[in-house]
Amino acid sequence: MNKEKEKENAALAAVALIEDHMVIGLGTGSTAYYAISAIAEKVKQGLQIKAVPTSEQTATLALSLGIPLTDINAVDVIDITIDGADEFTKEKYMIKGGGGALLREKIVAAKTKKEIIIADASKLVDHLGKFKLPIEVIPFARGYVMEELHKLQLKAEVRPFITDEGNNIIDVAFGKIEDPVALSAQLNEIIGVVTHGLFINLAFNILMGEGDQVRVFS
Fold first, then answer.
1. Among residues of the chain, what percentage have pLDDT more than 70?
2. What is the rounded average pLDDT of the residues 91-117?
3. Which of 97, 112, 151, 193 could form a disulfide with 102 if both were Cys (CB 3.0 to 4.6 A apart)?
């Protein structure tokens, strides 16, 4: 079965968890698209929700499909967020941010009771690091952060991309990440780093399409 069908199956399983009057976080990316489309169909059928988008791209899509949006600062908590991942382990450690929305995605995840990650089977890895790790930095600190990364003998390059918050993204090829928790803490200590794409202890469940089944990591 192809990846797209696995993504869709995972998305539909996640959307089935949504109930009336919930506040829903809407992820960004190709997998989240399936969830947003399915949520829009439920809204047309009478589902009453408010949604918080994780990017301007997602906000535009949701509005075009008739999903009512709210500002994250207007809600106390987000009940469920459905988002994708670039890669993940069975321990639910993830790399996110390939689409450039990592800062808003992480803020939304932190404010969410149940962060539901949806993915196709190709995103499951034994160790993080196959996918380049995005690091979001303020433009003023871009050169400094690059120097700090080079001191660590890391191959880093600035992505030709500006985030929704007006920041830059540096993509870093780590190779196999032995200790994601320690690396997360180390990167957080670099002045000028706003956030990075290591998502640790944020996923409630990961729903992975595998063939015609959906496998749950909880």
1. 100
2. 98
3. 97
Q: How remote is the C-alpha of 179 from its chain's centroid?
A: 20
Q: Which residues are known catalytic residues? A: 105
Using DSSP, state whether 102 is helix, strand or coil.
helix
Question: In the chain, what percentage of residues exceed pLDDT 90?
Answer: 100
Residue 109 in tokens: 């995840």
Angle at the Cα of 81 from the Cα atoms of 85 and 73, rounded to 5 degrees: 120
* Cβ pair 45, 18 in contact under 8 A: no
Output the CA angle 173-27-63, nearest 5 degrees.
135
The predicted model scores a pTM of 0.97
> Quick one: CA torsion of 209, 215, 217, 218, rounded to 10 degrees?
120
* 163 touches 101 (CB < 8 A): yes
For the chain, count helices (H), then strands (E): 6, 13
The region, left, alpha or beta by phi > 0 then psi within -120 to 50, assigned to residue 20 is: beta
